[in-house]
Write the structure tokens for this entry.
Amino acid sequence: MIGLVALAAGCATQPPQQPSVTVPPNAGVYRIGSPYQIGGTWYYPREQPDYDETGIASWYGPTFYGNLTADGELFTSQDLTAAHRTLPLPVNVRVTNLENGHSTVLRVNDRGPFAQGRIIDVSERAAKLLGFYDKGTAKVRVQYLARADLPNGAPQPFGAGTPSDVVTAVTSAPVTSVEAETLAPPPGANQAPPKAVASLPAPAASTPVAGPDPGALPSGQVSRVAVPAVTHLYIQLGAFGNYQNAARLAARFGSQVKISAIQRNGQTLYRVRSGPFDKTEDADAALSRVLNLGSSDAQIVVDQ
């Protein structure tokens, strides 16, 4: 990101007005980036054409105006841009505020946020369009759309400029060998039987994920989509296709977590979670406790 610490909420003072700019004139090049570490956590940028996650968004403000983003673009408050930890740069994503149904397309051109418990940082203008500028944070859904336009007006095709063997590869941190065996659920483990769980709303029909020009620039158009009447926050420590793997992780945290199951793409996914929480402050505190216990991959997610 422009700085290593993103603002968790908007500032009280009004920043000076900036000209309306969607793609700065000195836009950089398409890049994935190398793995990096912040606060003891490793992040692995990679191609993620199926990226679709929920979490908490924040916006970053005056401290960063006029600086360069991670891909070499100039940041101003009026850009329709965002920062993400691992998506390639630049790409377009749809961000939907799950609290009011406001949905718009943003250009991810920066790294961050690095504040615990945040999934994406957006510009001031984007925060206003999505309706959480005054509040500072919001429950959101972030969906990958396509590579964004470059200065010459066209996005690079998938895999361009990237060796074929690393287009979808994820670099792993060094690990010791692990022997796996089938185990019964540990005593006292909370297990929910597999069941179908309603998905969060699909993206706005007026802006399809794939279209004749998927690399089109964000326009500032805000769609209204249906969202669940009630959503909750959870701390998700991991998600596994194998129950035994989920049980091993859950055993480390005892009664603090539960194992729940969801059917996704015809497969059962076992999620190790803590919660639910209704307030962001409570979820933040729970996330800090889990991270301090050694679960560096834990994150806040939004679910019904």
